[in-house]
Queue: 4 jobs
Job 1
Amino acid sequence: MDAHANVDEVLAAPAPDGVWISRFSAAELHERARAVDPGAPLAGLTFAVKDNIDVAGLPTTAACPDFAYRPERNAPVVQRLVDAGAIVVGKTNLDQFATGLTGARSPYGAPESVFGGGLISGGSSSGSAVAVANGSVHFSLGTDTAGSGRVPAALNGIIGIKPTRGLLSTLGVVPACRSLDCVSVFTREPSLAGRVIRVARGFVPQDPWSRKAPPEARPIARPRVGVAEGLDFFADNGQEKAYARVAADTTVDVGPLLEAGDLLYRGPWVAERLADLGDFLATRPESVLPVTRRVLETGLGFTAADAFRAQHRMQELRAAAGRMWERIDVLVLPTIGTTFTHAEIADDPIGRNLILGRYTQFANLLDMAAVTVPNGFTEDGRPASLTLFGPAFSDDLLLALATSPSAAAGGITV
């Protein structure tokens, strides 16, 4: 691809409010384009980076100006992409400290979905998703702890990849919940997502959370697909009808998964966010948005005994999830049960955030891989979406399914 032409397209593209926090100058981007090896795997492709991931030459803010610092080097996951010929355009907006799924918790603005109508962009990787969906860049990096790499994909009609924890290094990423955090990838095309993931993944010895992927297993000729019955769509008949289009082999009980997800924000895992942000919150409380502070401070109410009790229950729920994978290879769920406008989120920012995460926030707790794909539109024009889940290191299988013509047409049939 012509790197300079791609840079010119980026520079000419309109910049919607609230998408970018910082960008390299035109001169800097063209300088990077001149350095691209035309034979590199991602030669000349442009990408955006969520502003809780380090990019040398730009500040890392985590959407909190008083927290900002200037990293000396790229995060390893960014460096792998740069080495493969991709060009970093800039840093994108997010829910502050990656705490939220709405895209409405940032002092840098609140991006709207590309579908307009006051629809939220989703978060926390709001800017990264919109920058891909509106064609500003070819792909972007986000993060995903509770669903931040999937909810914004759903609300903007694009592909969202939440890899197995540790498959992409989180070194150089501002922690949210360090034991659960993932770097995510957004693209408009599943095939490009696969190319990006293959470049970005890899064990990083300096990263204690990095994991070595096992040798590739023999491809599954016909994966067994499961769906769930009796899901709550929060009175959104359009989303319910969109999910009903999925063809599957069997139904499964996702009760243990949903219980695990409830523990993320209603249990002691919220206190893990204080392990890295507690000192900043204690000394600079005025620098943190009220809604973000409210979420973080709930972590102060849990004891060590609470944490151990929750870990014990989580182990039981992981065992239940493990038994599920004996029956199916892939679980397909709606990414979100319903959509919201910015006005609706403003009326109930905490409660509606929990609704957005209902079918996403268990994945990292239960060590799953996930891929989000568009699933058409509801009758009232709202985007619908599906997420394909598999056990840890099933990433290649999920990407293969997401690339299938049936998935691209708005349904999963294998």
Job 2
Amino acid sequence: MDIRHRLSANMKRLRKAKSWSQEELADQAGLHRTYISGVERCVRNPTITVVEKIAVALGAGYDELLG
């Protein structure tokens, strides 16, 4: 599995563990809902800055998102 698919799967898992919608995660991360959707569908290639925003919003480490 490539890194985009790992990021996508881990984002969804962590988001759902918090019972958050994509919109809630986007609000918490300061991103647009459609951007979060694109990352989860592997059609966006997020920068490390965006990965950091998502990690902070989810309260997760980079290893949890990318591992």
Job 3
Amino acid sequence: MVARIYRPAKTAMQSGKAKTQRWVLDYEPEVAKSVEPLMGYTSSSDMKQQVRLYFETQEEAVAYARRHGIAHRVEKAHERKVRGSAYADNFRFNRVAPWTH
């Protein structure tokens, strides 16, 4: 039973950063998922995959895992890099590629 502690990435569907500030403790799957032959549903008998705990800081998540004797792995948080650009840059005189339709 290995837990993964990480900070989730921003969703690709929205530009906001909601739900990316908290740290998450998830369990790694112990049993592979199987396909139910009649209906084709994907299922697993591993109940720990349904558990997801949220913490305000990484230290709180690690302390919780150590306190409860959970083997854990901490994944480094990736910071977002934002490149500044302006709409006027599309019509710049010294543009690398010519602007055409």
Job 4
Amino acid sequence: MAQWVRLCAAGDVPQPGKVGQFEAQGVDVCLANIGGELHAMDNWCPHRRGPLGEGWVEGDRVVCPWHAWGFEVTTGNCPEEKGHVDVFPVRVDGDDVLVDIA
């Protein structure tokens, strides 16, 4: 069952090609803007818990700022390192950005 919660205001989303970190009901979320499309994933890299929301975008991946593991925004996979983070459905509802943290 979906659990849509407010992540941030629509005006606070990262610019295209950028990422940011937000918190939704105790869940730390990395929000990436890829060509105007928003993608949400777990903020913590499984390698050493680097904050993905402080990283950068390369193509369709968010890159961890600590050791450069790149996670695909649609799957959460990092195929080269066999790592994975959870991805969350995201939508804009009026002036709010919502994520499904269920």
